[in-house]
TrEMBL record:
Residues 3-154 form the N-acetyltransferase domain. This is GNAT family N-acetyltransferase. InterPro entries: Acyl_CoA_acyltransferase, GNAT_dom. Pfam families: Acetyltransf_9 (PF13527). It comes from the Bacteria.
Amino acid sequence: MSIEIDVLNGDASWPVAKPLFDAVWPPDVMEKLSWGQVQWAHADLRVLIERPEGGLACHVGIYFRDVTLDGRKMQAGGIGGVMTREDCRGQGYASLALNAAVRTMRDREAVQFALLFCESHNFAFYQARGWHRFTGEVYAEQPGGRIRFEAMAPFVLDFTRAPRQGVIDLCGLPW
Protein backbone atom coordinates (compact mmCIF):
# COMPACT_ATOMS: atom_id res chain seq x y z
CA MET A 1 0.00 0.00 0.00
CA SER A 2 1.31 3.44 -0.95
CA ILE A 3 0.53 6.56 1.08
CA GLU A 4 0.49 9.87 -0.75
CA ILE A 5 1.55 12.94 1.25
CA ASP A 6 1.10 16.39 -0.30
CA VAL A 7 2.31 19.73 1.06
CA LEU A 8 0.21 22.35 -0.67
CA ASN A 9 -0.50 26.08 -0.56
CA GLY A 10 -2.88 26.74 2.34
CA ASP A 11 -5.49 28.89 0.62
CA ALA A 12 -5.46 26.97 -2.67
CA SER A 13 -5.89 23.63 -0.91
CA TRP A 14 -8.68 24.77 1.46
CA PRO A 15 -11.45 23.35 -0.78
CA VAL A 16 -9.77 19.92 -0.51
CA ALA A 17 -9.30 20.18 3.28
CA LYS A 18 -12.71 21.64 4.20
CA PRO A 19 -14.71 18.38 3.96
CA LEU A 20 -12.32 16.78 6.49
CA PHE A 21 -12.72 19.76 8.85
CA ASP A 22 -16.51 19.46 8.53
CA ALA A 23 -16.39 15.71 9.23
CA VAL A 24 -14.05 15.90 12.24
CA TRP A 25 -15.38 19.14 13.75
CA PRO A 26 -19.00 19.64 12.68
CA PRO A 27 -20.84 22.69 14.11
CA ASP A 28 -22.50 20.71 16.94
CA VAL A 29 -19.05 19.52 18.10
CA MET A 30 -17.41 22.94 17.67
CA GLU A 31 -19.93 24.69 19.88
CA LYS A 32 -18.96 22.44 22.82
CA LEU A 33 -15.18 22.90 22.51
CA SER A 34 -13.26 25.38 24.68
CA TRP A 35 -11.67 26.71 21.50
CA GLY A 36 -14.76 26.46 19.28
CA GLN A 37 -15.34 30.23 19.18
CA VAL A 38 -11.70 31.19 18.54
CA GLN A 39 -10.91 32.92 15.27
CA TRP A 40 -7.94 31.05 13.78
CA ALA A 41 -5.35 32.07 11.21
CA HIS A 42 -5.40 30.46 7.78
CA ALA A 43 -2.64 27.92 7.14
CA ASP A 44 0.23 29.00 4.91
CA LEU A 45 0.71 25.38 3.83
CA ARG A 46 -1.22 22.16 4.39
CA VAL A 47 0.02 18.61 4.72
CA LEU A 48 -2.68 16.34 3.29
CA ILE A 49 -2.68 12.56 3.33
CA GLU A 50 -5.09 10.70 1.09
CA ARG A 51 -6.75 7.46 2.13
CA PRO A 52 -5.91 4.53 -0.18
CA GLU A 53 -9.60 4.30 -1.08
CA GLY A 54 -9.87 8.05 -1.72
CA GLY A 55 -10.66 11.14 0.30
CA LEU A 56 -8.49 12.76 2.92
CA ALA A 57 -7.33 10.76 5.91
CA CYS A 58 -5.34 13.46 7.69
CA HIS A 59 -4.54 17.18 7.72
CA VAL A 60 -1.87 19.32 9.39
CA GLY A 61 -1.72 23.08 8.86
CA ILE A 62 1.67 24.84 8.71
CA TYR A 63 2.11 28.49 9.69
CA PHE A 64 5.08 30.85 9.41
CA ARG A 65 5.09 33.98 11.51
CA ASP A 66 7.29 36.64 13.01
CA VAL A 67 6.48 36.50 16.72
CA THR A 68 8.02 38.14 19.75
CA LEU A 69 9.54 36.31 22.68
CA ASP A 70 9.98 38.58 25.68
CA GLY A 71 9.85 41.50 23.26
CA ARG A 72 12.48 40.12 20.84
CA LYS A 73 11.35 39.44 17.28
CA MET A 74 11.97 35.94 15.91
CA GLN A 75 10.46 33.60 13.36
CA ALA A 76 8.34 30.69 14.51
CA GLY A 77 6.71 27.88 12.65
CA GLY A 78 3.29 26.74 13.72
CA ILE A 79 1.30 23.54 13.60
CA GLY A 80 -2.49 23.70 13.69
CA GLY A 81 -5.62 21.97 12.55
CA VAL A 82 -4.19 18.52 13.16
CA MET A 83 -6.94 16.05 12.41
CA THR A 84 -7.51 12.51 11.24
CA ARG A 85 -10.78 10.97 10.07
CA GLU A 86 -12.24 8.82 12.82
CA ASP A 87 -12.05 5.65 10.72
CA CYS A 88 -8.34 6.33 9.96
CA ARG A 89 -7.11 6.94 13.51
CA GLY A 90 -4.45 4.73 15.05
CA GLN A 91 -2.85 3.97 11.68
CA GLY A 92 0.04 6.45 11.86
CA TYR A 93 -1.39 9.12 9.56
CA ALA A 94 -1.04 11.95 12.10
CA SER A 95 2.58 11.00 12.83
CA LEU A 96 3.41 10.95 9.11
CA ALA A 97 1.71 14.30 8.51
CA LEU A 98 3.30 15.90 11.58
CA ASN A 99 6.76 14.66 10.52
CA ALA A 100 6.24 16.11 7.02
CA ALA A 101 5.15 19.43 8.52
CA VAL A 102 8.18 19.59 10.84
CA ARG A 103 10.54 18.80 7.94
CA THR A 104 8.90 21.56 5.90
CA MET A 105 9.37 24.08 8.73
CA ARG A 106 12.98 22.99 9.32
CA ASP A 107 13.72 23.67 5.64
CA ARG A 108 13.20 27.36 6.38
CA GLU A 109 16.45 28.19 8.12
CA ALA A 110 15.05 31.35 9.72
CA VAL A 111 12.48 29.39 11.77
CA GLN A 112 13.90 29.10 15.29
CA PHE A 113 11.20 26.97 16.88
CA ALA A 114 7.79 25.46 16.26
CA LEU A 115 4.68 26.08 18.33
CA LEU A 116 1.36 24.31 18.54
CA PHE A 117 -1.67 24.35 20.79
CA CYS A 118 -3.44 21.20 21.94
CA GLU A 119 -5.95 19.77 24.35
CA SER A 120 -4.81 17.68 27.32
CA HIS A 121 -5.81 14.36 25.73
CA ASN A 122 -3.14 15.00 23.04
CA PHE A 123 -0.24 15.91 25.37
CA ALA A 124 1.30 12.42 25.32
CA PHE A 125 1.14 12.22 21.51
CA TYR A 126 3.18 15.42 21.08
CA GLN A 127 5.55 14.75 23.99
CA ALA A 128 6.41 11.35 22.49
CA ARG A 129 7.47 13.22 19.34
CA GLY A 130 9.82 15.65 21.12
CA TRP A 131 7.48 18.55 21.83
CA HIS A 132 7.75 20.33 25.21
CA ARG A 133 5.16 22.19 27.22
CA PHE A 134 5.60 25.96 27.12
CA THR A 135 4.84 27.24 30.61
CA GLY A 136 4.92 30.96 29.88
CA GLU A 137 2.23 33.26 28.53
CA VAL A 138 0.99 33.44 24.95
CA TYR A 139 -0.82 36.43 23.49
CA ALA A 140 -2.78 36.50 20.24
CA GLU A 141 -5.18 38.70 18.33
CA GLN A 142 -8.91 38.13 18.25
CA PRO A 143 -11.66 40.32 16.77
CA GLY A 144 -11.98 42.15 20.11
CA GLY A 145 -8.23 42.85 20.36
CA ARG A 146 -5.14 41.29 21.93
CA ILE A 147 -5.84 38.51 24.46
CA ARG A 148 -3.90 36.09 26.59
CA PHE A 149 -4.47 32.85 24.68
CA GLU A 150 -5.50 30.11 27.09
CA ALA A 151 -7.99 28.06 25.06
CA MET A 152 -5.43 25.25 24.66
CA ALA A 153 -1.98 24.42 26.03
CA PRO A 154 1.08 25.58 24.06
CA PHE A 155 3.88 23.16 23.12
CA VAL A 156 7.21 24.00 21.48
CA LEU A 157 9.72 22.07 19.41
CA ASP A 158 13.40 23.03 19.15
CA PHE A 159 14.93 23.98 15.83
CA THR A 160 17.67 26.37 16.91
CA ARG A 161 16.15 27.22 20.27
CA ALA A 162 12.67 26.84 21.65
CA PRO A 163 11.67 28.71 24.77
CA ARG A 164 10.12 26.81 27.65
CA GLN A 165 8.84 29.95 29.40
CA GLY A 166 8.56 33.69 28.89
CA VAL A 167 6.03 35.72 26.93
CA ILE A 168 5.25 34.88 23.31
CA ASP A 169 3.15 37.31 21.28
CA LEU A 170 1.86 35.65 18.12
CA CYS A 171 1.48 39.09 16.52
CA GLY A 172 -1.71 37.89 14.89
CA LEU A 173 -4.38 35.23 15.09
CA PRO A 174 -3.58 31.90 16.77
CA TRP A 175 -3.11 28.77 14.76
